[in-house]
Amino acid sequence: MSSTIRKLKPVVEVQAKSMVAIDDVTMAFGTFVAVQDVNLKVGDGEFLSIVGPTGCGKSTILNAIAGLLKPAKGAVSIDGAAVNGVQNNIGYLFQQDALLPWKTAYQNVELGLMFRGMPEAERRVKVLAWLEKVGLKGFEARFPHQLSGGQRKRVQMAQALITEPKVILMDEPFSALDIHTRHLMQNELLRLWQEDRRAVVMITHDLEEAIALGDRVVVLAAGPKSRVIESFPVDLERPRNVAEIKLDPKFITLYRDIWASLRGEVEKSYARH
Amino acid sequence: MHAINIRLIQVALLVVILGGWQLGVSTGVIDRFFFPAPFDIVKQVVTWIADAGFYKHVGITLSETVLGYLIGTGLGVAAGVWLGLSPFVARVLDPFIKAVNAIPRVVLAPIFVLWLGLGLWSKVALAVTLVFFVTFFNAMQGVKEVNPVVLSNARILGAKRAHLLRHVYFPAAASWILSSLRTSVGFAVVGAIIGEYLGASAGLGYLIARSEGNFDAVGVFAGIIILAIFVLVIDLILDFVEKKLITWRPNAGEERPA
Question: In chain B, which end has fewer C-beta atoms inside a 10 angstrom radius, N or C?
Answer without folding.
Answer: N
